[in-house]
Amino acid sequence: MPSALITGITGQDGLYLAELLVAKGYDVHGLIRGQNNPKLDLVRELLPTVTLHNGDLTDMSSLIRALRDSDPDEVYNLGAVSFVAYSWEQAALTTDVTAKGVLTLLESLRLHTGDDPSRVRFYQASSSEMFGKVQEVPQHERTLLWPRSPYGVAKVYGHYMTLNYRESYGMHASSGILFNHESPRRGPEFVTRKVSQAVARIHLGLQEEIVMGNLDAQRDWGFAGDYVEAMWLMLQQPAGDDYVIATGQTHSVREFVQAAFAHVGIEDWERHVRHDPRFMRPAEVDQLVGDAGKAREVLGWKPRVGFDELVRMMVDADIEAARSGW
Length: 326
Ligand code: NAP
Ligand code: G4F
Prior knowledge:
By secondary structure, the protein is α/β, with parallel strands linked by helices. The chain has helices spanning 12-23, 40-46, 60-70, 84-89, 91-113, 150-169, 191-203, 224-235, 253-263, 293-299, 307-323; strands spanning 3-7, 27-32, 51-54, 74-77, 121-127, 173-178, 181-182, 210-212, 218-219, 222-223, 242-245, 251-252, 273-275. Helices cover 43% and strands 15% of the residues.
C-alpha cells in the first residue's frame, strides 16, 4: 500500500487530495498544527482512516518526526499562509511559513531519505500568483515570474527551492503552478466563496448586500477536485518537473458575481453590491490565464468542471448550507 504525507490537510485542497488518495488505496497521513485546531473534527469526520501528526512548517523537528512516523512514499506540501490580502498584513509570517517552510520541509526530507534522495516523491504547491504583473498571456511554465504580493514572493522562493533541490540532490520534486481553484470547501475569505455565500443568503432573504473590492480583476478559475488529480499525476511520472494547471479561460470578478446572482434569478445584481476600498490591494494581479498544454500532453490531465458549473455548484452548496442553518 503506498503512503503519503500531506501538509495543509485541513485546507480546501488537503481535504480533496486526502479523499482522492484514500480512494486510491493509499495509507494517508496529515500534518495538523495548533494545540486545538478548529478543523480537527471535520478532518476526522471526512477522513476517519487518515493518521494525523502534530507539526508546523516552521518547526523542523516536528517535520522530521512526522516523516519518521509516517514513512511516506509521497509528500504533498500544501501548507501555507495562502490568503494574498492577508500576506501584506503579516508579511514576515507569510515568509516564514510559505517561503521558508518549503526549505524546512525539503531539508527535513533530505535528512530523512539519506543516501537515496529520490525515494520519496515531493509535490510543492506553487501558484499562478507568481506571475503577478503578467509578462505574457497566457502564462506557461517558462513565463517570467513577477510577483505582486508578499505571498507571491514567498511562493517564488518555494518554487525555485523545489527546482534547486531537484537539480542539486536528484530529488523527485515537482512544482504544480496551479491557477485559482475553488469549491464549496473554499475558505470564505476568498472572493468566490464570499460571493457564493452572500448570494445564497440574499436569495433566502437573510442578507441585503455584499461589500466588494476590485471587480475588474480576471482569474482563471477551475474546480479544486480536478486540480488535486493533477498533483497526484505529477508524482506518478518517472521524474519530477513543473506543470501549469489551469482551464485556459479567464473571467472577471464582476462576471463571477453576475453569474452567481443570475443562478438564483437576480439580474439587477448591482443594487446588492457595494464597493469598499478596504477590499482593494496595495498591488493587484490584473489578469491570469494559464496554458496547461504541458500537463495535457505529459500527464493526460484536463479540467472537467467549467466556470458556469463551478458557480452553480458553489451557490447551490451555500443555499443548502444556509437552509440547514450552517
Ligand atoms: P487553504 O485552504 O488556505 O489551506 C492552507 C493550509 O495550510 C491549511 O491546512 C492550514 O492549516 C495550513 N497551514 C497554515 N499555516 C501552516 C503552518 N505554519 N504549518 C503547517 N500548515 C500550515 O489553501 P488551499 O486553497 O487548500 O491551497 C493549498 C495550497 O495550494 C496552498 O499552499 C496555497 O498557497 C496553494 N495554492 C492554492 C491555490 C488555490 O486557488 N486554492 C492556487 C495555487 C496555489 P490550518 O487549518 O491549521 O490553518
Ligand atoms: O479570491 P482571491 O482572494 O484570490 P487570489 O488573490 O487570486 O489568490 C488565490 O489564488 C492564488 C492563485 O492565483 C493562490 F495562490 C492563492 O493562495 C489564493 O488561493 O481574490 C481574487 C480576486 C483578486 O483580484 C481580488 O482583488 O478577487 C478580487 N476581489 C475583489 N473583491 C476580492 C474581493 N477578493 C477577496 N478575497 N475579497 C473581496 O471582497
